[in-house]
Specification:
9 strands, alpha+beta, four-stranded antiparallel β-sheet, five-stranded antiparallel β-sheet, disordered C terminus, 28 helices
C-alpha cells in the first residue's frame, strides 16, 4: 500500500475516483449476492453434535432441540391461560402464525397442530405422544399426566409409577412436548416450527414477521406474551451507543489537534469505511460463511476503533511535519512513508491474528474472523488511500477552525488566511467553540493552569520525554508496580467459568426474556435448558434399553424429569428429554451434565449396549470448552509465533519481540479478570445495566486475544520502532527508550484513549454479547496501552539495557532489513524530538 498511498497524494482526484469505484463495486456485489446472518453453531466430532445429528432425523428434529423451533409462551393476568378471553386471543394468534410465510407448523394446546406442513408422526411413537399432549392440554394437568403415563409408560416411569410425582416433575412433565399448560393452569405455550433443517434455511424476514405478531400481542388484553428459540436470533435493534464512543473520540481529537476539521477527518475516514463494510461487504461474506447476527455490531466496534486510530497516526505525522516546516504535499508524502507503513504493518498483524481463529476449525469462528478481518482491511484502505488524497487536496485547510486555546504561534497554517479560507476558518472556529463549549472551557483552563496562558516552549522537552526520564531513574519500582497491578486485576480469571448466555440475560421486556421468566415460573427453571439425549439402539424397537436408561436418569436427585416417547417397532434412535432441577446458568446444571455422561449413562447402558449421546445447551458449552482446550495451544502458537517472527524481522532483536508478544498475555488475563468480576460475580452490574450474571461466553477469550494481540502489536510497533531507530543511530539504550517515548508516547496514549472510548461505548447497548465484548476489549486496550506499553515495557527495556537489541550473527545475516521509516525520515523525525538533558549534556533546541 506504500506506493498506492504516495500515488494518492500525488494524484488525489484519481485516488478519490478509485475510492468511489471501490464503494460502487462492493455495493453492487453486496446487494446482488449478499447472504443472511445466522447463529448456526456446530462443533465437529463432539457428543453434542452427534446427538443433534441423530435427533434431527426424527420428524425433522421437531421438539428435540434440533429443529427450527420457537416457543410462544403466555400468561393471563385474569386467570387460566387456556380459558376465556385468553384462549380466544391466543388461539387467534397461533392460527395467524400458522399462516405466516416460512412457518411449517404450529403446535397448540387448544387442539390439533395448525399448518399445512406439520410432519406425519410415526405410528406408536408420535401419535401416542400427541394423544398424551392433547389429553393433558385439553382436560387438565393431572388427567393429562395420567393419560401420558398410560399410553407412554416409559416417559416418566421412574418418577410416576408407584409414587406421586414431585412438583418439579409435574412442571417438567407439563412442559414435555411442543405445547402444554403449567400445573396451575396460569401459563401455557405452543411451538412454531419453520421450514428447513438448519439456520442456513431460516429466512430472517419470515421469522421477523412472525415475531412482530407476537410482540404486538404482548401487553394486550391482560396477556404477557414472549417467544424464544429461533425468535431469539431475530428482531433485535442495533445498539445506538456508537455515537457516544464517537463523541468521546471527537473530544479527544479536539484536544489532540486543536482543530475542528482536523478532529473530524479521522472519524469521517473510519465511519465511511465501516459503513461500507457493514452495509455491503459483510452480507457478501455471509454468502460464503456462517456470520453471526452480532458480527456487524462487533465489526463496527473494531472498525471504528482501529479506523480512527489508523487515521489518527497518519494525520498526526502530517501535522507534525507541517509544524516543522514541510510543505503540505511533502508532509503528506512523509506521513504515508512513515506512519502509513506502520499502519499497514499494524493492520496486517490484526488481520493475521483474526484469521488465526481458523485454527479452531469451527465455522462460527470462521465467519466472525473473516467479517472482522474484512472490516480492518477496509478501514486500512480508507486510511491509506482515501485519507492521503483528502489531505493532499486540503493542504493547510485540514486544520482550519482552531479551538480557543490554540495560540497564533501554534496554529496551522502559521500564515494568516485571507478571503474565503479566512471566512470559512473563522466560521468553523466559532461554531466549534459554541458546539463544544465545555471542551472549550476545559481547554482554556488547562492552558491557563499548566502553561500560564502561553504557547508551549518548543525548546522544552515534552511531557513524555520528562516522564521517560523519571521512569528511567526508578525502572525496577515502575516495572514491578505495573506487573503487580496487572496480576491483581487478572486474579479473578482463576474463577473463570465458561458457558453460553441464555435468555435470562436478555433485556427486560424483550420477547426472549418474557418467555424465559414465564416458563421458569410456570414449569420450573430447568425447562429453559433441557438435555436432549439421542439413544442409538442396539436393535430396532428396543424398548427395554430406553426404559432402563429413563429409570436411571429419573433416579438422579438433580433431575426433575427424564421423559421418552414410546419407541416405534422400526426405530433405531430414541429421544429422551432430561429436565434439570436447576437453571441453565447454574453451576449445578453443568455438574449434572458431567455426572450423567460419566456415571449414570454408562452404568445404565452397559448391559444393553445402547449408545447414548447428550446434547442441548449445556452439552454444547461443555464440548466447546473441550474443543477450545485442544485447539488453544495451536492457536496461541500460530498467532503469537507469527507476531513474534514479524517483530523479530522488524526490530532485529529477540528480547524486544519476546517481551512485546508475551506481555499481551498479561493484558488478556487482566481483561478477562475484569470481565469475570463484572459478568460472573456481578461487580458494577447495575452501573452497566447488566440484566443477570452467569458464565462467560466460551469464545470470548480467543476472540479478545486475537483482536488484542493485533492491537498490542500496533502499539509495540509505534513505540519501539522509534526506539529502534534511535538505538541504531546512537547505540545508547537509555536515550533510545526515552526518545521513543518522547516521539510516540503521546500519539499512542491518544490512540488508546480513543479506542477505549469507542469500545467502552458499546457497554451501554442492550445486547449482552456486545456488552461482554465492550467490557473485555475496552479494559484490554486501556491496560495494555497505559500499563503494559507505557510503563512495563519501557521499564523492562531500561533494565535489560543493550540486551534488548541482541541478535545472533547468523540470524542477523538471514533476516531481511525492513524498516517502518526510511533513513531520511528517521533523521527528520529525530530532529523534531526535544530530549531531556542527561548529566553533563545540554538540551538540543528544536529544529524547524
Amino acid at each position: 500500500m506504500g506506493r498506492v498511498s504516495q500515488w494518492a497524494v500525488r494524484r488525489p482526484w484519481y485516488a478519490l475516483l478509485t475510492w468511489i469505484g471501490i464503494m460502487v463495486v462492493v455495493g453492487v456485489l453486496g446487494t446482488t449476492f449478499g447472504g443472511d446472518y445466522n447463529d448456526n453453531f456446530q462443533l465437529p466430532d463432539t457428543e453434542s453434535t452427534t446427538a443433534q445429528d441423530l435427533l434431527s432425523k426424527l420428524s425433522g428434529g421437531a421438539g428435540t432441540g434440533a429443529g427450527l423451533d420457537g416457543q410462544v409462551v403466555w400468561k393471563s393476568a385474569s386467570g387460566k391461560a387456556t380459558e376465556g378471553s385468553a384462549a380466544t386471543t391466543m388461539s387467534s394468534l397461533l392460527t395467524e402464525l400458522s399462516r405466516s410465510p416460512g412457518v411449517a407448523c404450529v403446535q397448540t394446546p387448544f387442539g390439533p397442530p395448525l399448518g399445512s406442513a406439520c410432519p406425519q408422526q410415526p405410528a406408536g411413537q408420535g401419535q401416542q405422544q400427541g394423544k398424551g399432549q392433547g389429553t393433558q392440554h385439553g382436560q387438565g394437568t393431572q388427567q393429562g399426566q395420567g393419560t401420558q403415563q398410560g399410553q407412554g409408560t416409559q416417559q416418566g416411569q421412574g418418577t410416576q409409577q408407584g409414587q406421586s410425582p414431585s412438583p418439579a416433575a409435574q412442571g417438567a412433565l407439563a412442559h414435555f412436548g411442543q405445547a402444554g399448560v403449567s400445573p396451575d393452569g396460569a401459563t401455557a405455550y405452543g411451538t412454531v416450527t419453520f421450514t428447513g433443517k438448519t439456520f442456513n434455511d431460516l429466512s430472517t424476514a419470515d421469522a421477523t414477521t412472525a415475531l412482530n405478531l407476537i410482540k404486538a400481542q404482548n401487553g394486550q388484553d391482560g396477556l404477557q406474551v414472549g417467544a424464544n428459540g429461533v425468535f431469539g436470533f431475530v428482531g433485535g435493534e442495533p445498539p445506538s451507543s456508537e455515537s457516544i464512543g464517537v463523541t468521546v473520540a471527537l473530544v479527544i481529537l479536539l484536544f489532540a489537534f486543536g482543530s475542528i476539521l482536523g478532529a473530524f477527518l479521522p472519524i469521517i475516514s473510519a465511519a465511511l469505511s465501516v459503513s461500507l463494510t457493514t452495509t455491503f461487504a459483510l452480507p457478501l461474506v455471509a454468502r460464503f460463511f456462517d456470520v453471526a447476527t452480532f458480527a456487524p455490531v462487533l465489526a463496527s466496534m473494531i472498525g471504528l476503533g482501529v479506523g480512527i486510530d489508523y487515521s489518527l497516526f497518519v494525520i498526526n505525522r502530517y501535522r507534525e511535519s507541517m509544524i516543522h516546516g514541510r510543505a503540505p504535499r511533502d508532509a503528506a508524502l512523509e506521513s504515508v512513508r512513515t506512519s502509513g507503513r506502520a499502519v499497514q504493518f499494524a493492520a496486517a498483524t490484526v488481520i493475521i491474528a483474526l484469521l488465526g481463529l481458523f485454527v479452531m476449525r469451527i465455522s462460527f469462528f470462521n465467519g466472525i474472523a473473516v467479517a472482522a478481518a474484512v472490516t480492518v482491511f477496509m478501514v486500512m484502505v480508507g486510511a491509506l488511500l482515501l485519507l492521503p488524497a483528502v489531505l493532499s487536496l486540503l493542504g493547510t485547510w485540514a486544520f482550519v477552525g482552531r479551538m480557543a486555546w490554540i495560540t497564533d504561534q501554534e496554529a496551522i497554517p502559521q500564515q494568516r488566511l485571507t478571503g474565503v479560507r479566512h471566512t470559512v476558518g473563522r466560521f468553523l472556529r466559532y461554531l466549534g467553540w459554541i458546539l463544544y463549549l465545555p471542551v472549550t472551557l476545559i481547554g482554556l483552563a488547562w492552558r491557563r493552569i499548566v502553561h500560564h496562558g502561553k504557547a508551549p516552549d518548543p525548546n522544552r522537552a515534552n511531557a513524555f520525554a520528562r516522564y521517560g526520564n523519571w521512569l528511567q531513574q526508578r525502572p525496577w519500582v515502575t516495572g514491578i508496580f505495573a506487573l503487580v497491578v496487572m496480576l491483581v486485576v487478572a486474579s479473578p480469571v482463576l474463577s473463570l467459568r465458561l458457558g453460553f448466555s441464555d435468555d435470562s440475560g436478555a433485556p427486560q421486556g424483550s420477547p426472549p426474556r418474557i418467555a424465559y421468566d414465564l416458563a421458569s415460573q410456570g414449569f420450573g427453571p430447568g425447562v429453559n435448558g433441557p438435555f436432549f439425549i439421542a439413544v442409538k439402539l442396539p436393535q430396532a424397537g428396543d424398548q427395554a434399553a430406553v426404559t432402563k436408561l429413563t429409570e436411571a436418569l429419573n433416579a438422579d436427585p438433580g433431575v426433575a424429569l427424564a421423559a421418552a416417547a414410546p419407541v416405534a417397532a422400526d426405530a433405531t434412535v430414541a429421544p429422551i428429554q432430561v429436565v434439570p432441577k436447576t437453571a441453565p446458568q447454574d453451576r449445578e446444571t453443568t455438574d449434572l451434565l458431567f455426572h450423567l455422561r460419566e456415571t449414570v449413562i454408562p452404568a445404565a447402558t452397559a448391559d444393553s449396549h445402547a449408545q447414548a449421546y447428550v446434547g442441548g445447551f449445556q452439552a454444547v458449552t461443555a464440548d466447546f470448552t473441550q474443543v477450545l482446550q485442544n485447539a488453544l495451544p495451536w492457536f496461541l502458537l500460530i498467532v503469537v509465533g507469527l507476531g513474534f517472527l514479524a517483530l523479530v524481522v522488524l526490530f532485529r532483536s529477540l528480547l524486544v519481540p519476546a517481551t512485546g508478544a508475551l506481555s499481551s498475555l498479561l493484558s488478556l488475563g487482566a481483561a478477562l479478570g475484569i470481565t469475570v468480576a463484572v459478568f460472573q460475580w456481578g461487580w458494577f452490574s447495575d452501573l452497566i445495566r447488566l440484566e443477570s450474571t452467569g458464565p462467560i461466553f466460551p469464545f470470548l477469550p480467543v476472540m479478545v486475544f486475537s483482536i488484542l494481540f493485533g492491537l498490542s502489536c500496533d502499539y509495540q510497533v509505534f513505540l519501539v520502532s522509534r526506539m529502534h531507530e534511535e538505538w541504531m543511530n546512537t547505540g545508547d539504550n537509555r536515550k533510545a527508550v526515552r526518545r521513543g517515548l518522547a516521539g510516540s508516547g503521546r500519539v499512542v496514549a491518544i490512540a488508546a484513549a480513543i479506542m477505549t472510548s469507542v469500545f467502552g461505548a458499546f457497554i451501554l447497548g442492550n445486547d449482552a454479547t456486545i456488552k461482554l465484548f465492550g467490557v473485555a476489549l475496552s479494559t484490554a486496550v486501556l491496560l495494555d496501552a497505559f500499563v503494559v506499553r507505557l510503563i512495563f515495557i519501557p521499564s523492562m527495556m531500561t533494565i535489560f539495557g543493550k540486551a534488548n537489541w541482541w541478535l545472533p550473527d547468523w540470524l542477523a545475516r538471514l533476516l531481511p532489513h525492513i524498516s517502518v521509516e526510511s533513513e531520511h525520515d528517521v533523521e527528520a523525525g529525530a530532529a523534531e524530538i526535544v530530549d531531556v538533558s542527561e548529566p553533563g549534556e545540554e538540551t538540543e533546541p528544536a529544529r524547524v
